[in-house]
Specification:
Helix 4 runs parallel beside helix 5 and helix 4 crosses helix 8. The chain has one domain: Type I PLP-dependent aspartate aminotransferase-like (Major domain) (Aspartate Aminotransferase, domain 2, 3-Layer(aba) Sandwich). It is 34% helix and 14% strand. It is built from eight helices and seven strands. Strands 1-7-6-5-4-2-3 form a seven-stranded mixed β-sheet, sandwiched between helices. Strand 2, helix 5 and strand 3 form a beta-alpha-beta unit. The longest helix is centred in the N-terminal third of the chain and has 15 residues.
């Protein structure tokens, strides 16, 4: 018998391009500061410091007492929830989605953002992401072995992505383009004409548009954030993430959903059926 005595590393090479989340690092810094006696003002992760409405807490309390609340849920979410999500899209945005094929329940939008590239891309593919952008945008690509193409958000352009600056060669090679409005960390807003142009380009180059609408209910000065699915027929080339964390003060509950293109949603549903058992 030949034994392998070489020093083995139990750390994936992928972590070299990933590292630990900035939020974990900031949390550690905060803990150290607090333990040293400092009274800090927390400007770290955008975690709501208010509770959900009393009505939400009452419903959760009643559900927690039911004996049938503790079995394995469906990995794609309960049909009742998907129906409610579809109804919300119609009520809030005037958008119709099929709750069976075009809605997927998530353990928070981060769950879907982290796994979507694994579901729809192959190692070596390319995807367009904003710079600066929310950390999981590029982190998910590192996990999936997808090459990021960074789209800069510049002050001289009002921190809007310049879609015309994207070379044709990038459009030809990209599997998807990911953007979010209102943005994080830059709270840029857009009107429907921007989404119309984005969808037009995506259709031209057969690129999936991924819109992260985590701040759907956080518009100010009369502005109401838009859904990219308000562009007629956009679901043929777009998906959109929605989250309960910011809009409903339910960050710890880990609830979100994905709507839009049924092929992309089907791929993510299939992947997640091998990973988890859905939302509690």
């Amino acid at each position: 018998m030949i034994l392998n005595t070489a020093k083995r590393s139990w750390r994936s090479d992928k972590l070299a391009n990933l590292g630990s989340s900035i939020f974990s690092e900031v949390s550690h810094w905060k803990m150290e500061a607090q333990q040293s006696g400092l009274d800090i003002i927390d400007l770290g992760i955008g975690s709501p410091d208010r509770a959900p409405t009393p009505e939400v807490r009452q419903v959760l309390s009643k559900a927690a007492l039911r004996e049938d609340s503790y079995s394995y849920p469906s990995s794609c979410g309960s049909r009742q929830f998907r129906l409610k999500a579809a109804a919300w899209m119609h009520y809030r945005f005037g958008v119709s989605v099929d709750p069976e094929q075009e809605v997927l329940t998530l353990m928070g939008s981060q769950d879907g953002l982290a796994h979507l590239a694994l579901a729809i891309c192959n190692p070596g593919d390319k995807a367009i992401v904003p710079d600066p952008g929310y950390p999981i945008y590029s982190g998910a690509l590192a996990i999936a072995g997808v090459e990021p193409v960074y789209l800069p958000l510049k002050a001289e352009n009002g921190f809007l992505p310049d879609l015309d600056s994207i070379p044709e060669t990038v459009w030809q090679e990209a599997v998807f383009i990911l953007l979010n409005f209102p943005g994080n960390p830059i709270s840029t807003e857009v009107d429907l004409s921007f989404f119309e142009k984005l969808i037009s380009l995506a259709r031209k180059w057969n690129v999936l548009v991924v819109h992260d609408l985590a701040y759907s209910e956080m518009g100010f000065d009369g502005y109401r954030p838009l859904s990219i699915l308000e562009v007629p027929g956009a679901s043929d080339t777009a998906v959109e993430f929605h989250s309960f964390s910011k809009s409903f003060n339910m960050a710890g509950c880990r609830i979100g959903f994905l709507v839009g293109n049924r092929e992309a949603i089907g791929a993510l549903r299939e992947l997640k059926s091998n990973i988890d058992y859905g939302v509690f």
